[in-house]
């Protein structure tokens, strides 16, 4: 099975047990109807692989605007006529057949466009998993969860720290292989010494913050964060119900595992938690330095576990279709050279850095992928989550979102000055 075929199998498996009604429903104003995502994946593949690379007419030119993310923003997707679930699946099938014909005729060239389309589908699968977790449709069944490692491990809280020495480092993706435009150019910077959380913050540690009045301590919150919290009456992470903390304390509930990373927290919450512990969120450069190191002799960036991509279930909690977080520190084989654990997978980790281009940034292959989002509105997340595909979760990949967003599988890793 080719990578494109495997991606399509995964996409369809993800929604195989979802009813048509749930596919067409707007489950959250933050998310698209799932059926829109399905047809959008097909439209994107047809545009880039069949039309622009293969030089063929679009299969459905009449659908181009409907399934263009900029022409039809999320707020409109539940109010316009869309393909129904059966039509969306047929659209996926027809486009994929055309793609295979183009590959037979033209090969894959340098592979850049094909990899971009492949990763686009991977990223939409994670977005759809976010929607499904928000919706929790009845009788929905995920394909399966990878079991947690069975080997003994120490218990972490997320407050344990490792020291990262001062010194120069290089940030961003090199010239070889695939990377998004915002990951380049690779450039040198100098990072002062700092301390980094050895693992993400766990549920138990965050629960202590909640129960000790963290959401009422004005001094922990930025002005913007406090205004957001007050306006929407935010008192806990997005996936914790009102009575969850008390019932978990009494041993009545299973879902809130104390030693797993807290998830579905906004940047505002992550920032407040860090302040409450006389810490801060790491900068993007600090995060990447802690996660990677350079091999000057090979002139190549290495993953924390070597020169190859991580193996899900061995080095990191990645690539799950029906999973969730693993206990903090569960994958010691994936430790960074400084001893940080779980930097790839489990939860996206908020940084303090606003999204912008690196020095010398050049938009490629289209401005709308990155450049239109540059500025002060978005904060960078790093590392990937349990739902992120292995090819996407590289140490240089930059995710971004609004600081108030909580639908993503985002958690917290703290830092401190030395």
Number of domains: 2
> How much strand content do the residues show?
5-15%
Strand order of the largest sheet: 9-8-7-10
CATH superfamily of the largest domain: paralog of FGE (formylglycine-generating enzyme)
Largest sheet: 4 strands, mixed
**Termini gap:** 50 Å
- What oligomerization state is this entry in? single chain
Structural class: alpha+beta
CATH class of the largest domain: Alpha Beta
Low-confidence stretches: 245-254, 294-301
- Average pLDDT over all residues: 90
Give the SSE order as H and E letters.
HHHHHEEEEHHHHHEEEEEEE
Strand segment tally? 11
CATH architecture of the largest domain: Alpha-Beta Complex
Please give a structural write-up.
With 418 residues, this protein is α+β, with helices and mostly antiparallel strands. The chain has two domains: 3-135, Four Helix Bundle (Hemerythrin (Met), subunit A), CATH 1.20.120.450; 151-418, paralog of FGE (formylglycine-generating enzyme), CATH 3.90.1580.10. 30% of the residues lie in helices and 10% in strands. It has ten helices and eleven strands. The chain has helices at 3-14, 20-24, 34-53, 85-106, 112-135, 203-211, 223-232, 244-249, 267-276, 284-291, and strands at residues 161-164, 167-171, 187-191, 194-197, 293-295, 300-302, 348-354, 379-382, 399-401, 410-411, 415-417. The strands form four sheets. Strands 9-8-7-10 form a four-stranded mixed β-sheet. It has a three-stranded antiparallel β-sheet with strand order 1-4-11, with helices on one face. The longest helix is centred in the N-terminal third of the chain and has 24 residues, at 112-135. The chain is globular and about 60 Å long. The chain starts with a helix and ends with a strand.
């Amino acid at each position: 099975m080719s990578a494109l075929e495997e991606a399509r199998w995964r996409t369809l498996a993800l929604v195989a047990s979802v009813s048509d009604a749930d596919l067409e429903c707007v489950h959250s104003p933050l998310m698209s109807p799932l059926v829109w995502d399905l047809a959008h994946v097909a439209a994107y593949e047809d545009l880039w692989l069949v039309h622009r690379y293969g030089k063929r007419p679009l299969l459905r030119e009449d659908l181009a605007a409907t399934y263009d993310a900029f022409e039809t923003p999320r707020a409109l997707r539940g109010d316009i006529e869309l393909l129904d679930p059966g039509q969306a699946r047929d659209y996926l099938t027809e486009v994929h057949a055309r793609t295979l014909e183009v590959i037979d005729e033209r090969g894959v060239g340098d592979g850049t466009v094909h990899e971009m389309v492949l990763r686009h589908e991977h990223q939409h699968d994670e977005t759809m998993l976010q929607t499904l977790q928000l919706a929790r449709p009845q009788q929905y069944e995920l394909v399966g969860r990878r079991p947690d490692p069975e080997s003994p491990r120490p218990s972490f809280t997320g407050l344990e720290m490792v020291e990262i020495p001062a010194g120069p480092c290089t940030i961003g993706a090199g010239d070889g292989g695939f990377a998004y435009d915002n990951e380049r150019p690779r450039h040198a910077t100098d990072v002062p010494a700092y301390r980094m959380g050895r693992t993400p913050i766990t549920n138990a540690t965050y629960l202590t913050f909640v129960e000790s009045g963290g959401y009422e301590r004005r001094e922990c919150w930025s002005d913007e964060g406090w205004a957001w919290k007050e306006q929407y009456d935010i008192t806990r992470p997005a996936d914790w119900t009102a009575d969850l903390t008390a019932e978990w304390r009494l041993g009545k509930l299973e879902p809130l595992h104390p030693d797993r990373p807290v998830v579905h927290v906004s940047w505002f919450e992550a920032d407040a938690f860090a302040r409450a512990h006389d810490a801060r969120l790491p900068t993007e450069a600090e995060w990447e330095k802690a996660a990677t190191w350079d091999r000057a002799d090979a002139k190549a960036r290495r993953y924390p576990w070597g020169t190859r991509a991580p193996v899900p279930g061995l080095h990191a909690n990645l690539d799950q279709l029906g999973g969730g977080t693993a206990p903090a520190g569960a994958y010691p084989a994936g430790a960074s050279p400084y001893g940080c654990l779980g930097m790839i997978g489990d939860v996206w980790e908020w940084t303090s850095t606003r999204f912008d281009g690196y020095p010398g940034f050049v938009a490629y292959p289209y401005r709308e992928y990155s450049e239109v989002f540059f500025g002060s509105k978005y904060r960078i997340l790093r590392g990937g989550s349990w739902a992120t595909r292995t090819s996407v979760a590289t140490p240089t990949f930059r995710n971004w979102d609004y600081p108030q967003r909580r639908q993503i599988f985002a958690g917290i890793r703290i830092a401190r000055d030395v």
